[in-house]
Design brief:
With about 350 residues, the protein is α+β, with helices and mostly antiparallel strands. About 50% of the residues lie in helices and about 15% in strands. It has 2 domains: about 10-120; about 125-340, Aminoglycoside phosphotransferase (APH), C-terminal lobe (Aminoglycoside 3'-phosphotransferase, Chain: A, domain 2), CATH 3.90.1200.10. The strands form 4 sheets. Strands 1-2-3-8-6-7 form a 6-stranded antiparallel beta sheet, sandwiched between helices. Strands 4-5 form a two-stranded antiparallel sheet. Mean pLDDT is about 95; it is low at about 1-10.
Length: about 350
């Protein structure tokens, strides 16, 4: 890999985005380039590939502020995602400074930044799209369930102190209680699910401690949502959370519950049931219904918080959309809190 260009600071993010948005920038050729911005990255879709450029940002939970950190996280993204999508993540490509003063993709000059290069998957094959289009079939669900069950069965388990594990959930509840009221949500719709979660922690703390004692915690995906699941064949899961190792250390039942809650929101609760059944059959792990509902309720509150955090950006175009999305998550959080 080329060394970092000494004059990297002269290339702004806007310069990089402008270059990557051009059709003639890509050696493989493309009829069009679609650019998508997220809080953390810019993604550029060509006819055959997807390229991800990480923004030079630092948040509480990630740090992409230097070129070296961005390169490291690109490499981690490749390594981790190859566990569940081995043929999609092709490698890290340098963005280079050409001799003529222009940016190039994978050129011979010094590296200015780095990008993750992926094989582009058909959008219609993603789980969220298939649910919306009503094209999902039983064989597709079975492929997803088998992939995840095998992954969790084969993943190395982690020694994690039981008290540390429980404190994680205490912190999440406290953070949700502090953040969710800031943007116009009603106190009752926030507090009702949080009370149920706190009651579980008080009354059934031993259930969570036992998960840690049994070494159920492992390095999972970290962000297992329908939009990251490809039905196949073969089934694959992309967009693993690469930037914070602590957030990937999960109980697989928690992670499956996260996927189940999101599928439930889309009107497809049977998907989560199938994945959980496959996991139980593959591993022999059959947790209590109360534990699953706790995990699902807490995940829904975290997603409500992430939705409402979009309003921290004063330039956000549709504030009502994010408030309603947060409320939708809170409704699901309450339903599962009441089922604990």
């Amino acid at each position: 890999m080329q060394p970092l260009a000494d004059r990297e600071q002269e290339w702004t993010l806007a310069d990089k985005v402008a270059a990557l948005g051009r059709r003639d920038f890509y050696p493989e050729g493309t009829a069009a380039v679609t650019c998508t911005e997220t809080h953390m990255s810019w993604v550029f879709l060509t006819d055959q590939h997807a390229y991800k450029l990480k923004k030079p940002v630092r948040y509480e939970y990630l740090d992409f502020s230097t070129p070296d950190l961005r390169r490291f996280n690109c490499e981690e993204e490749i390594r981790l995602n190859r566990r569940l999508a081995p043929n999609v993540y092709l490698g890290v490509v340098p963005l280079t400074a050409g001799a003529g003063g222009q940016l190039e993709l994978g050129g011979p000059g010094s590296a200015v930044d780095w990008l993750v290069k992926m094989r582009r998957l058909p959008a219609a094959g993603m789980l969220d799209a298939a649910i919306a289009a009503r094209t999902l079939r039983a064989d597709g669900i079975a492929r997803i369930a088998a992939l995840l069950a095998d992954f969790y069965a084969g993943a190395p388990h982690i020694d994690l102190d039981a008290g540390t594990y429980c404190k994680r959930f205490e912190r999440e509840i406290a953070l949700n209680r502090a953040e969710l009221p800031r943007y116009g949500l009603l106190q009752d719709e926030i507090e009702a699910p949080l009370r149920g979660q706190a009651a579980f922690l008080r009354g059934q703390r031993g259930v969570l401690e036992q998960r840690a004692h049994e070494r159920r915690i492992l390095e999972g995906h970290g962000d297992l949502r329908p939009e990251h699941v490809y039905i196949g064949p073969p089934a694959m899961v992309i967009d693993c959370l690469e930037f914070n190792a602590a957030l990937r250390l999960v109980d697989p039942v928690d992670e499956i519950g996260y996927l189940a809650m999101e599928c439930e929101r889309f009107g497809a609760p049977a998907i989560g049931e199938c994945v959980l059944a496959a996991y139980a059959a593959r591993t022999g792990d059959r947790p209590s219904a109360a534990l699953l509902h706790f995990y699902m309720s807490l995940r829904a509150c975290v997603r409500a918080r992430l939705a409402i955090w979009h309003l921290r950006d004063e330039m956000v175009a549709d504030r009502a959309k994010w408030i309603e999305r947060a409320r939708d998550y809170l409704r699901h959080a309450l339903r599962h809190a009441e089922a604990i």
